[in-house]
Amino acid sequence: MNQLLLEIKSAYKNFPGKPVLNGVDFSVASGQIVGLLGRNGAGKTTLLECALGLREIEYGEIRVCGDPPNALSETTRARIGYVPQQTDLFEWLTAEQMLAYFKAFYPRWNDAKVGALMQRWSIPPNRMIGKLSGGEKQRLAIIRALAHDPDLLILDEPVAGLDPAGRREFLRELVERTIERETTVVFSTHILSDLERVAIDVAFMKDGQITLQRPLDQLSERVRRIVGPTDLLARLRFGHELARINDGASNARIVALCDDQDELQLQSLKTQGVSIEAVTLEDLFMEVA
Amino acid sequence: MPSHSASIFSISTGSTEPIYRQLVSQVQRQVAGGQLAPGDAMPSVRDVARTLALNPLTVSKAYSLLESEGLLQRRRGLGMWVADIGARKGSSATMRAEMLRPTLERAAVEAAQLEIDPKTALSIFAKILKGKR
Q1: Does residue B50 belong to the interface with chain A, where contact is any CB pair within 8 Å?
Q2: What is the pLDDT of residues B13-65, one digit of tens each?
Q3: At what angle are helices B45-52 and B56-68 packed, to 10 degrees?
Q4: Are residues B22 and B62 in the same domain?
Q5: Quick one: B18 and B44 in the same domain?
Q6: Do B97 and B111 share a domain, yes or no?
Q7: Rounded to whole angstroms, how far apart are CA atoms A255 and A257?
């Protein structure tokens, strides 16, 4: 088994009057590309911030490259790249000054890559960051996070402020230079099509917990939505049920991760008014997130 | 021998079919239809990944599956090629027959569940093949 770069065990955290991490178990092995999905307020940003030591959990255990987040070693720090959801720091510096400032903290800093990306993504190097557009700021934050060739890249909605062309550019960069270097990537996003292109695994977060973490291909091939008469469906049991919805109507539905035996059981029901469908990632999001 | 660019592929997101499956079936179709001929060079994993903005692992997965099906051949250091027909597992007719197998297996399960004996099931299938009801 690959080494775990990120390991979170039963993490709890409350915001005033509201639990935000409610027993999160989440681990990411070296080389994995994990997309983190969940509705607004599910706790994704808090989870990533806790993993990086920007916030503290109240209970549980977190290890990043083996270190606790509140005591990251210099070596570990140098291995992590992070793009926060919002970047409004260093507004008074120019892009060039900000990058020079960060360069001093990292033993490994890829000047050639920084220069190439600055040019390719047309970031004006000498304008104050505060005067850049939202998209330019976001691209600059991505450049900063990629500059020291991190082993673990944590991206919190990295493309939210980018137009489709900008998103595609970013995905290409991620695919070409980052994934090929076997960088481990955790990214949260609401843009499912991007996630489908680059993520190998997906994790769903709901109400402060990771409710499902699987290879994306396995979800497409194994998750079924079963719709049929409520009384018939009430008798069905699946090894790994993801959702069961009875809204009082005569039809109910079940969403389940089916193994071969479940599939056989389902085939026999097709003649009894039960419909069985594969689901898209968006359908799945609606059912389990 | 022609070599193909990554534009032989196009994928759609938001589908129930995983992306690696889409790539596999596009090669299967293009080989069956002759657009990809034995000896043609396939675009590299890197090219396909870059052009379609896909994870290279997804492209390798598709290529490996096609290799195990005998449709593609890996030449050390040279990438992937469309396999010679002789090298494919079985003739293309048996291969096409294999593609029908999963559907028939499902039909066999349903026939058993409906307690239809094999003879009756086969006669129904024979009628369907002849286009009768």
Answers
A1: yes
A2: 999 999 999 999 999 989 988 899 999 999 999 999 999 999 999 999 999 99
A3: 130
A4: yes
A5: yes
A6: yes
A7: 7
